[in-house]
Specification:
51% strand; 265 residues; 14-stranded antiparallel β-sheet
Length: 265
């Protein structure tokens, strides 16, 4: 889930992209609102408080998925300095995983600091391809073999979780960086059975997994640039987030959830 929650993360490339699932994963079209707070479990030496919200919406359009994500976070440093981060992220992704249209706008205290827009194509799911940016400037970026787009990654992640796989790694391109596909490593914890105590009735009969996804600069080694922890239900809904920005970390809690109509019917 940009900031991307980074809605993305990725998978063990060509082999994984070609691996059949024992049972098809069906992602639920939905709208989810998350309350964001400073993560108390993580030391945040320079940050006194952080509060905000994220709205995430995904809809199955039969031949494609559309995603909208809006994110706002107010941060106060221990020195008393305060600022507001915000982002608006929109994508259209073909179901076969070969086309992605994207637009990202980020701002600090109301001043736009980054705008990225364009379209990416692959010669096949998990294949090579390119991204053609129209903003901040017109240019083309090569995408390496194994690249996956965000929603295809979510499907592959849940398929891997169902198989009992524990680690996935591959490049992912989601349109949030001018540097191209980011290398990722995903760790999947054991399956959690359906829990009648879950706060939303639509999720109480659904199994879930906790995953942690680390994002690295292309070809990078060492420490990740960003990490996110998510509890994913097997229908693609997330209800617990941990977003580690390295300097500080934010916890996200599902505050509102609504199923949306989608699919080919």
């Amino acid at each position: 889930m940009p900031v991307r929650f980074r809605p993305a993360a990725v998978v063990a490339v060509c082999l994984l992209a070609a691996a059949p699932a024992a049972q098809a994963v069906e992602l639920t079209s939905h709208r989810a609102a998350y309350r964001l707070v400073l993560d108390p479990a993580r030391p945040n030496q320079d940050v006194e408080s952080a509060n905000g919200a994220m709205l995430y919406e995904v809809v199955d359009r039969c031949g494609a998925w559309t995603v909208q994500q809006r994110f706002t976070l107010q941060v106060v440093g221990r020195s008393g300095q305060a600022y507001e981060m915000s982002s608006d992220y929109v994508t259209w992704e073909a179901r076969e995983g070969t086309r992605l249209r994207f637009r990202l706008r980020q701002a600090t205290d109301g001043t736009v600091t980054k705008t990225i827009a364009g379209e990416a194509t692959l010669d096949g799911p998990g294949g090579t391809g390119s991204a053609r940016l129209t903003a901040p400037e017109q240019r083309e970026i090569a995408l390496p073999r194994g690249t996956l787009f965000p929603m295809i990654h979510t499907l592959r992640l849940l398929e891997a979780a169902r198989r009992g796989d524990r680690v996935l790694a591959a490049p992912v391109f989601d349109g949030t960086s001018e540097d191209g596909a980011q290398d990722t490593n995903t760790v999947i914890a054991g399956r959690l059975p359906a829990d009648p105590a879950v706060g939303f009735a639509a999720l109480r009969d659904v199994a879930s997994w906790r995953v942690r996804i680390a994002f690295f600069a292309p070809g990078g080694t060492g420490q990740p640039e960003y990490e996110v922890g998510i509890r994913y239900f097997e229908n693609g809904v997330a209800d617990e987030l941990k977003m580690d920005f390295i300097e500080f970390a934010v916890a996200g809690y599902l505050a509102e959830f609504e199923r949306l109509p989608g699919g080919c019917n």
